[in-house]
Each structure stands twice: as structure tokens, then as C-alpha cells.
Amino acid sequence: MKFAFAGIDFLGSVFDGLVEAGWTPVKLFTRPCDAIYDHNDVVVAQARRHRIPIQLSRILPDDIERLAKEHGRDVALVVAGYPWLVRGWHGRVRYALNIHPSPLPTGRGPYPLFRAVLDRYESWGVTAHVLAEQGFDTGDILAQDLFPTDPRESHETLLIKCQMAARRLALGPIGRDLTERWRRPEPQGDGSYWPRVSDADRTLDFRQDVEAVLRRIRAFGRIETIAKLGDNRVFVAEAEGWCEAHRHAPGTVIHRHRRQVVIAARDGYVLLTRWSPLPLSEVPHLGR
Q1: 205 — phi, psi (to 5°)?
Q2: Inter-CA distances, 110 with 103, 132, 165, 230, 279, Å
Q3: Where is the Formyl transferase C-terminal domain (predicted)?
Q4: What sign does the dihedral 82-40-163-155 (CA atoms) show?
């Protein structure tokens, strides 16, 4: 089957899986990326290797109509990690689907991985669903790949698990069986929408216990949490900690050693091991 891929490297494993399943790519729809938090160099390289056109602007109905005229109405539009709502595919192409990194209907929204770790979900998953034109992540379900999570799950480990699950979906039920699954999708029913996180969500509260603080740091990983050290803010990518009775006020800096900082939490101490006075987006190099 021919397909156009709309996305970035975040779920670029879908592109790989579909090609491995025997599908033929015909176009890449992507977007400019900052090369800090978001990347598209891998999917762009894939598109160039397959010698297919690349479009950086938002998909419009005319783009879908042109896609159908050039490649036939049986071409599939596969969306994975694309920020814009895609409209106008009905009556133009037969298949349009989205790959979303949550076990829908739980976790609709732009990026549910942070909250999945924060809320200690015991299992997670990736969902392939019919692309809905009325709202993000609400279309009928075509297939899901569910997997257990670990009590020490982090943003990075959950992201990789989602990428692997997305590839399995592309290589298996979507890549091998889309036509049959398209005939019998399952409605989602009621669900939950998780909005984009704010700086308040990323800010550490040392009045909490050590485990809660470390879980928030793991939940954001290299996207960084924010810690207040006296009058200053620092951006934290990694930390360790331990429980120990003490009389220090939560948030007090107890000890420093080179780049390591020990801060009192409610029931112990948190050791910042990888942090910066600047957010990642303002650091001139990424090797910190």
C-alpha cells in the first residue's frame, strides 16, 4: 500500500515499520524542529532516501486532494506526532489514521507521557485510530499495543517503549491488516484529555517526600524540571535521593560538591546530579 507520513522523529518508527511491512512511501509531511526537544532529521533522511517530496507547512485539504490525484484514493495518510489537526481527508483518500502514544481513550492530548509517569500508571500503550476531523485523538480505534510499566519508569524509558510499540503496530496489525481493521473499528467512548504541561507542572516541591520529587524529575527527564535554589531557578535533568530523618526546612541547600547539590525534602534528601542555571533551549551545547 502507498502511504504519506505526517510526523517527526518522535514516532518515526512508524515509517520504518510500514516500509518493513511492504508499504511504499510517497510523501513526507513534517514541520520545522528546534533540534533540542524536537527532531525530524531521521524522517527527512528517510524521505530523501526514498526520493519522495517533503512538505514543512501544515496539511490542507488541497494537499490531500493532490495526494489522491497523484497516487490514487487508496493511498493511506498516516499521522504520528504531528501537531496540527488534519481535516478534509473524507472523500479524498480511503484511509487516514493517527498513531497516538497512549492507551486511548485515556491520555488524549499533545504529549501524555509526562503524566503517565507522574500518575504511576501500571501499564501504558500506543493506539492506532481513525483520524477524527472534529478533535484530537478521538477517532475509532483500529489497534492497540499495550505493555507494563516499571515502578521506576522515566520519561526516556517510556518514550522508547512507545516508539517500539508504535513500530510493532505499524509492522503488524496496521501494516498487515489495515483493510480488515478499517471495516470494524471500535468507538472510544468517554475518555480524558491531558493538556500541554506548564512550568508549574515541571516545578519541584521539596515539601513532598523524596520519592515524589524523584518521580517528577524522572517524568520529565531531559525536558527538565525546575528547582528553586534560594532566589535562583535551576533546570534539573537527573537526580538521586534517599530517606533520612532531619530538621532542615524543605528546600534548604544542605551540601555542595562540585556540580552536585543536596537539597532537603520532607523525609530525606535529593541530590541534583545533572542540572544547569539555563534551560536546555538556551544552552549552546547539549553535552551536559
Answers
A1: -120, 105
A2: 14, 15, 18, 33, 21
A3: 197-274
A4: negative
DSSP E strand boundaries for the chain: 2-7, 24-29, 54-55, 76-80, 95-100, 123-130, 141-148, 225-229, 232-243, 253-257, 260-265, 268-276
Give residue 223's pLDDT: 93
- Domain boundaries 199-277, corresponding CATH code: 3.10.25.10
Nearest to 34 by CA among 14, 55, 57, 9: 9
| Positions in the chain short of pLDDT 50 | 283-288
CATH label, 2-193, candidates 2.60.40.1220, 3.40.50.170, 3.20.20.60, 3.60.20.30: 3.40.50.170
User: What pLDDT digit, counting tens, does each position of 43-72 carry?
Assistant: 999 999 999 999 999 999 999 999 999 999
CA 252 distance to own-chain centroid: 34
Instruction: Give 130's strand partners.
Output: 97
Q: Can you give the pLDDT at residue 58?
A: 97
Dmax over CA atoms of the chain, in Å, equals 72
C-alpha cell recorded at residue 19: 516500509
Q: Hey, which residues does 97 pair with through a beta bridge?
A: 78, 130
pLDDT at 281: 64
Q: Give residue 219's pLDDT.
A: 98
Q: Give the span between the Cα atoms of 94 and 85, in whole angstroms.
A: 18
